[in-house]
Amino acid sequence: MLPETKAVISAIAKHQLVLATGHVSSQEGLMLLREARQQGVQHLVVTHASNAPIEMNVAQMREAASLGAVVEFVGSTLHSADAQQRMDRIADAIRQVGAQSCILSSDLGQKGNPLPPDGYGEFLTAMAAKGFSEREIDQMSRQNPARLLGLSANSR
To answer: In whole angstroms, how far apart are CA 34 and each of 6, 25, 37, 41?
Structure first.
């Protein structure tokens, strides 16, 4: 790992910021998370873990969760040709990793896609259709993100 990368991770730890893995490979993401934990970073996110270019497998997602990271799943592909298969894979991964270690977000805002609030609502509805309870959806869409940011999940 480059010294500059370690310096950035150190600054994240010092200022109690969130480290998100971004668009790196699954192996690089895990390397970042391991170093971040070693340096004391408390708030970790695996950026859209099941999407390209990350494409973590479930074992890697579980490792990330064991390091204290939350695993992000996004609903930006609900209008793609393989949307149902993607939702099935996301639902399966969440069940294997555990809702307590996952967050749901939109990853929208691009031209030609639904507006983020609309697309996010569709994603939450799709997760409910895949059998997730209201409590699990609330945990992944409100409680876990609030915890990640150091906010109270009780205020609405």
So the answer is: 11, 14, 5, 10
- 102 pLDDT higher than 90: yes
% of the chain with per-residue pLDDT over 90: 76
Distance (Å, whole) CA 117 – CA 119: 6
The owner of tokens 């569709």 is: 122
CB-count burial class (<10 Å; 0-12, 13-18, 19+) for 154:
exposed
User: Quick check: 90 pLDDT over 70?
Assistant: yes
Tell me what the pLDDT averaged over the chain comes to.
93
Q: What is the predicted pLDDT for the residue at 112?
A: 82
pLDDT of 156: 55
**Strand arrangement, sheet containing 69-74:** 18-20, 43-46, 69-74, 102-105
Superfamily in which the 25-148 domain is placed by CATH: Metal-dependent hydrolases (3.20.20.140)
Q: Is the separation of the CB atoms in 105 and 79 below 8 Å?
A: no
Higher pLDDT, 44 or 81: 44
Q: Does residue 18 contact residue 148 with C-beta atoms inside 8 Å? A: yes
> Hey, where are the domains in the chain?
25-148
Q: Token pair of 75, please? A: 């609903």
